[in-house]
Design goal:
With about 280 residues, the protein is mainly alpha-helical. About 75% of the residues lie in helices and about 0% in strands. It contains 10 helices and no strands. The chain is globular and about 65 Å long.
Amino acid sequence: MSNWLGLLHGLDFLFTALFVGSVIFSLWIARGIAPSGQSFRKLQTGLLLILLLISCAWFVCLSAEMADSWKIDELLNVAKNTAFGHLWIGKIILLAVLLAFRHRFISLLALALPFFSSLTGHANAQPQHSAWFIGLDYFHFLGASIWTGGLVCLVIWLRGRLNSLNSSETGQSYLLVRKFSHFAIASTVAIAVCGLALAYLYGVRPYALFSTDYSELVLLKTILFVTTLSLASINQFIHLRKWNPSLERKFVQGVLRESFFELILIFAVLVIAGFLTRVQTP
């Protein structure tokens, strides 16, 4: 059961990050450059439906573990009488509102979703200064969301761009990639700073990285994060700097190639984060 719960929680992290990042991408990154609102809305609807199913599955499995029973009344008791159950109900209500009302203002409520992840993890279990832990965890996850969901949206848009290259709009792909790179840089800084701070506060030390399962998973996440950054730097320092309007197709293909490998590593990091919540901190 523990492995399944870790996987479900990791998938919950992943699809939450994808949805939140896609909202930020459509509202602020693509606005004025890549007016593809309809395709992004379809993507967000699909992500919301999947996230709703995963969140329900995770709640049922974790509630069964907490109650040591699969009986419906025991599961309902967890939902009604525990802080975890109340948070889960709040998250489901928020997801339902986001799914039912697709207004730009309502979409901003997506920024609250990372709080539910922070409040059901290690950050909220600290005996002292839990607000600091929750704040750091929130911005850590928000940074991951901007990078992950934004990159998926960028890839989708660029793949469509390959099929409709127009010589009169040769700078569009360059402008979008450059604007996304600014958001991505800010998000990676937030990920790194908040992640390192949390790891230290949770007791991870450089001289004892193999002393606990938690430290080993943090090390694995860090290695994957640094590897992903090296791939992202190719887009930032090579493709963008070598931009040439007459070579837009080559530019888009290069960005897509590096982005594909970035996404594989980012997805792995988020799934590992789910297993990390199942491990005791040092």
